[in-house]
Amino acid sequence: MKGSWDIVGGRINPGLSLVTNLKREVFEETQLTFIDEKLIHAQDILLEEKHVVRLTYVAQVNNEENLVLDTSENINYRWLTLNEIGTQEDLDIYVKEIINAKLI
Fold first, then answer.
1. CA angle 103, 74, 86 (to 5 degrees)
2. Can you give the residue ranges of every domain in the chain?
3. H helix or E strand, kind and range, residue 1
4. Cα torsion at 100, 18, 77, 45 (round to 10°)?
5. What's the CA gap between 39 and 5, in Å, rounded?
6. 58-68: b or e for each residue (b if 16 or more CB lie within 10 Å)?
7. Could you read off the pLDDT of 77-98 as tens digits, one per residue?
8. CATH number for the 18-100 domain, one of 3.40.50.300, 2.60.40.420, 3.90.79.10, 3.40.50.720?
9. How far is the C-alpha of 67 from the C-alpha of 63, rounded, in Å?
């Protein structure tokens, strides 16, 4: 939302579970599938024109070698450690909040 670097995500389709929506978004943007997802943080983002609830999960990827980046939504990707993510220039402020709170 605010920064050049962010984590994969997107909007939900009503009528489907949050995890089903998350798996769809991750697959659409990366072709990755994951297992053992765990919700780690919820953020209320109050904007002038809308209220966004951002839910952040961690999960284990089971087909990392199959990554195919959707370049209509992304232009680059990097695999980073938690320490590296926290020092990434122009990291999305909401991701930075989670990293700085050591929620992961």
1. 30
2. 18-100
3. none
4. -50
5. 21
6. ebeeeeeeeee
7. 888 888 888 888 888 888 888 8
8. 3.90.79.10
9. 8
Residue that has been written with the tokens 């929620």 in this structure: 103
- CA dist 30 and 51 (Å) reads 27
pLDDT in tens, 25-81: 989 888 999 888 999 999 998 988 989 888 988 888 887 777 888 888 778 888 888
| CA angle, 60 then 61 then 67, to 5° | 155
Torsion of CA 93, 90, 100, 40, to 10 degrees: 60
Q: Which two tokens stand for residue 5?
A: 């670097």
Residue with tokens 């919820």: 42
Nearest to 53 by CA among 63, 61, 62, 43: 43
